[in-house]
Design goal:
- The protein has two helices and 16 strands.
- By secondary structure, the protein is mostly beta strands.
- The protein folds into two domains: about 110 residues, Lipocalin (Beta Barrel), CATH 2.40.128; about 100 residues, Beta Barrel (Lipocalin).
- The chain has a 16-stranded antiparallel sheet that branches.
- Strand 14 and strand 15 form a beta hairpin.
- The N and C termini lie far apart (about 115 Å).
- The relative contact order is 0.13.
């Protein structure tokens, strides 16, 4: 009886340990992401060949990026011993680019990009990636700098409200477990989109996005497109959305609010003595 009891306790203990074991973090391709690669999580700004602008989101081994003409999507892996990051991207030309609205759709045939970058510390720890890239036709250098916003807190009520871009209005309503959103064009195009935004980690700036539907737009008319959103260093709300072989990047600024009334009471005591004689009769 005693041995049976001990055996039962051992089984229960093993079961508890198994349940408490942390789950592996996997990327969108189902591959396990090692802890060193998680150091790269963040929003980055950079360049190819020291020209132009490159905006990059790295999260749990996946990469979203875009520059003036191309959208990129792929994976990254960081070797902890060498601090070398191997980045594999597919580059898609923009098939629709509304620069005034800051909305870009990339798709079509993909070109493979292979990047190898060294992670090092510049003005902050692990804030810089520099290296080389190559495609089937060209090669060159790249550099990325973390914009420092990753550890900013996120909250559903922090993005609640109206956001704007040229020709578009975005409305977000915070609920208990998510934010629902609806975007509309303000011209005759009729482009609309809607979905939900959820928290990933309140101690980080990134949100999870599910775009339920986008329709009547010149491109990227889809249903159930996943992605991410973040408030950047300028206070704008950025979106990184993917559906199959198409990518959507959007940015919105918060709608202007009325200037708050200054309710500060001036408690300074005027100690000046008025010695002027009133001679008015």
């Amino acid at each position: 009886m005693r041995s049976l009891f001990l055996g039962l306790m051992a089984t229960l203990l093993v079961g508890c340990i198994a349940e408490e074991a942390p789950k592996d973090i996997v990327n969108e391709q189902g591959e396990v992401v090692d802890d060193p690669t998680l150091l790269l999580n963040g929003l980055w700004d950079g360049q190819f060949d020291q020209a132009g602008t490159l905006r990059v989101l790295i999260y749990n081994g996946n990469v979203f990026a875009f520059d003036e003409a191309t959208g990129y999507y792929g994976t990254v892996d960081l070797d902890d011993k060498t601090k070398l990051a191997d980045i594999t991207l597919e580059g898609y030309d923009f098939i629709d680019a509304d620069t005034s609205a800051e909305q870009y759709v990339a798709g079509g045939l993909a070109e493979d990009y292979l990047l190898s970058g060294l992670l090092f510390s510049s003005s902050a720890e692990n804030d810089t990636l520099v290296g080389d890239y190559e495609t089937s036709t060209v090669g060159g250098s790249f550099s990325l700098t973390n914009d420092g916003t990753w550890e900013n807190n996120s909250a559903l009520n922090a993005i609640d409200g109206q956001w704007l871009s040229t020709g578009y209005e975005l409305y977000l309503t915070a609920l208990s477990d998510r934010v629902t959103f609806k975007g509309i064009s303000t011209d005759a195009s009729g482009c609309t989109f809607n979905g939900a935004i959820r928290l990933l980690d309140k101690n980080q700036t990134l949100y999870q996005v599910e775009m339920t539907e986008r329709k009547n737009c010149s491109e990227f008319n889809v249903v159930n497109a996943p992605g991410y959103a973040a408030v950047n260093v300028d206070g704008d709300l950025e979106f990184f959305i993917r559906k199959s072989d198409e990518l959507l990047f959007m940015s919105f600024t918060p709608a202007a609010t009325d200037t708050p009334t200054d309710t500060t009471t001036d408690t300074t005591t005027d100690t000046t003595t008025d010695t002027t004689t009133d001679t008015t009769i």
